[in-house]
Structure formats: C-alpha cells, structure tokens
Amino acid sequence: MFVALSIYSRSMPDNYFARYLPLLIHILFALGIAGGMVALSALLGKRRPTRAKMTPYECGIRPTGDARQRFTVRFYLVAMLFILFDVEAVFLYPWAVIYRELSDPLKHNNFKYFGFIEMAVYIGIVLVGFFYIWKKGVLDWNRPEGEES
Fold first, then answer.
1. 148 within a domain of the structure (yes/no)
2. 3-state secondary structure 68-128
3. How many Å apart are CA 42 and CA 57, to the nearest integer?
4. Most CB atoms within 10 A, among 44, 61, 84, 109?
5. Count of beta carbons in the 10 Å neighbourhood of residue 108
6. Where are the extended beta strands (E) located within 51-139?
C-alpha cells in the first residue's frame, strides 16, 4: 500500500493550480462547443421573419392587453415568501445528513436529542412565520385589494 501511495504522490504536480488544469480545459472545451453552435446557427441559419413569427407566443393563446400591466403587491409577496421558505427547506438537507453526528451523546454532554431539538426549534420558528403570514392574509388571493385583516 505504501508503494502505491508513493507512486501516486510522485505523479501529482507540485503546483496547486496545476491540479485544476483538467477542469479548466473541460470548461474551455464546453464553452467552445456552445459558442461554436451559436455562431454556426447565426451564420448558417435561415431567417425569414413573417408577421406570424414576430408575434409574441403565450401558450397558444393570443396575447391581449399590454405586456407592461401592473401587478398587485401580493404577487411579489408570494414570490418572495416562496423563495424564503424554499431556502429554509434547503437547510433541512444538511441537517439530515449530519443528524447522527448531532445526536451523538459523547459530543453534546450526554444529550442524545440535541440534533432533533435543534431542528425542532428551527422548524418552529419557520412555522411561526408561516402562520403569521397566513393570518395576515398574504396567501389569500380571493380577498379584495383594499381589505385588511
């Protein structure tokens, strides 16, 4: 085993950045292929613009009204809340990966449920925020615009 390690370590480059040379070559190769496809499409592609091709396409439905219409604040609130709760849900994955390590009594003063209680507090805070926005009516789309709760 020592022989294999010494052979492997001798073939490794001494320069730290030389280890990333294959990754750099791979990225340049991928960018070259993508750029080549776009350039060839622009050079060789046929362009015959017609009125039908130049109209906006929205799921097979003819567009009506102005594209710059105003949206209610609720739309943006729900979008921000979705991103917020989505990011908070992503924090559950690393916790699930190290759950056994967090529940090791030898690391946390003989307390076996440290990891579970830690995440229960986190989920509790998230749920308090969720119930708050629910109670405020942010998620109720059928409520008239000026009505406050």
1. no
2. CCCCCHHHHHHHHHHHHHHHHHHCHHHHHHCHHHHCCCCCCCCCCCHHHHHHHHHHHHHHH
3. 22
4. 84
5. 15
6. none
Here the tokens at position 67 are 């594209």
Residue 127's domain spans which residues?
A: 73-136
DSSP helix/strand/coil, 139: coil
Q: How many domains does the chain have?
A: 2
Tokens 């308090």 correspond to 128
Q: Which residues of the chain have pLDDT under 50?
A: 1, 3-8
d(CA 60, CA 44): 29
Instruction: Give me the amino acid identity at 126.
Output: V
User: Residue 116 and residue 20: Cα distance in Å, rounded?
Assistant: 39
- CA dist., res. 78 & res. 45, Å (int): 42
Residues in the chain: 149
